[in-house]
TrEMBL record:
PANTHER family: ER MEMBRANE PROTEIN COMPLEX SUBUNIT 5 (PTHR28144). The chain crosses the membrane at residues 46-66. It comes from the Eukaryota. GO terms for biological process: protein folding in endoplasmic reticulum. This is Magnesium transporter. It comes from Elaphomyces granulatus. It is found in: Endomembrane system. InterPro entries: EMC_subunit (IPR053279), MMgT (IPR018937). Keywords: Membrane, Signal, Transmembrane, Transmembrane helix. GO terms for cellular component: EMC complex.
Amino acid sequence: MGFYSRFIICLGLVLLTHAGYSAHEHSTLYSNARSSLPSSPALPLDITIETLVAVLLVSSALVLGAEKLKPISWNVWAGEIEREGGSRNPYNVLEYRPGFWDVRTSRKEFSKWIRSQGESNETTRS
């Protein structure tokens, strides 16, 4: 995330905080001044506009400052990780846990065992 997007996010959050504080103060002041009225009036237009601008600023800065999206297809994303050597793999922690079954190693051992059985059968037939 770049400097500008972080700056815009901070500015938007400050505006949103100010709008929330202004809305709270408006409701508190109105309820103290006019306690005899049953309903409170709507928020002033400037507080509403400030809230909308703040939400738009924060949302747009978060979207523009986000990382590049990963491919939707699992095989494309996994292929990229495998070509890079697996350093970016988010599941590395899960793959190398002791006490869990390693499928790839088991497949290699099984294929070696099958080849060795086939070779031993060919030598016994000759």
